[in-house]
Here is the input.
Amino acid sequence: MYVSVLFSGGKDSSLSAILLEPFFEVELVTCGFSLLPVGEVAAETAERLGFPHRMIKPDGSILEKAYDMILQDGFPKNAINFIHRNVIEHLASDPNVSFIADGIRRDDRVPLLELSQIRSIEDRLGVHYVCPLKGFGRAAVNELVQKHLVIEEGLSEDILKADYETELREMIIQNHGPEKVREIFPSHVQSHVIERRNA
Amino acid sequence: MYVSVLFSGGKDSSLSAILLEPFFEVELVTCGFSLLPVGEVAAETAERLGFPHRMIKPDGSILEKAYDMILQDGFPKNAINFIHRNVIEHLASDPNVSFIADGIRRDDRVPLLELSQIRSIEDRLGVHYVCPLKGFGRAAVNELVQKHLVIEEGLSEDILKADYETELREMIIQNHGPEKVREIFPSHVQSHVIERRNA
Here is the structure.
């Protein structure tokens, strides 16, 4: 069985891939809209983890619509969820993809699909969408991360990750300057995976 | 790291143990209140799966209180959830236990702890409570079960499982006869694990 794990280079998507590895043929998949070289960062991290990696580039209108949403809302939640849902649908439309996974944890609020959205994607597109960390709290995830990964942590503006936030931020900077980003995005700690620990 | 997996002999708790096996030292733990020989069934299945197994016997007042609840409610949900929460607390009070897991799936409604109850147990008792199948829908679970387990399925009254329902049913039969059980419990398909498939 094959699984395509949505991969940002952070600890949660990396750990998800590691948890699935004994049971699936894992490929890491990163979404990019070509605003920043997020694919290079992700590909390098994927190689260090030992998983095959590929990029997908959904239609740019998704990023543009998310950009409109975030400016109207003044906060990122709905825009990030919108991108996430569309990226999953994009991947699910690939006839070679049957299992899609991501790094959503029990305590995550963004990105997060509603159960009805998940079932709709599974039923319409004939895929399984799985979240290996959904039953794990933050402290349990941290113990597993510490055992299996070497990470660096830093504020979100200093860590280059291949997540949706990175390119949304860039689009806002290009159009409105960095001050607008600070208005919209709360400063929070991000992780970037350096390498895999031999367990 | 050690994990204690709550084990009924069914496919969900068996698969949960298998998913955790590459990352934890797994022990299977079955709760029994000595009304039926559920421990023997569970121990035999655990041996076939290749995991160490032990029984726990929480205070009988838990089963009695659940029995009162189910007769008053006329349906099993609250009583089953009550037993499940108390069994997890009982196990979490063991100073040698740090990770507790169960076989709850994404689409399960019973037993199910509220997030606030989970966090309360984790914070008060210093354990991690994890549900490896929480991010997997029914169809995804079925694919993994088919790959890793040989199971038999049958109606809940015909399959002897080591779950909470089994002894609650027995207590109702002893006090009110089998007709009362059929009133309270919907007839549903249960699984019992026969053996492990070499993947």
Observations:
- The helical segments of chain A are 11-20, 38-49, 60-73, 77-92, 115-125, 138-148, 164-176, 178-184.
- Chain A touches chain B at residues 1, 19, 22-23, 99, 104, 106, 115, 118-119, 122, 128-137, 139-140, 143-144, 147, 199 (CB under 8 Å).
- Chain A has a mean pLDDT of 95.
- Residues 30 and 55 of chain A are 5 Å apart (CA to CA).
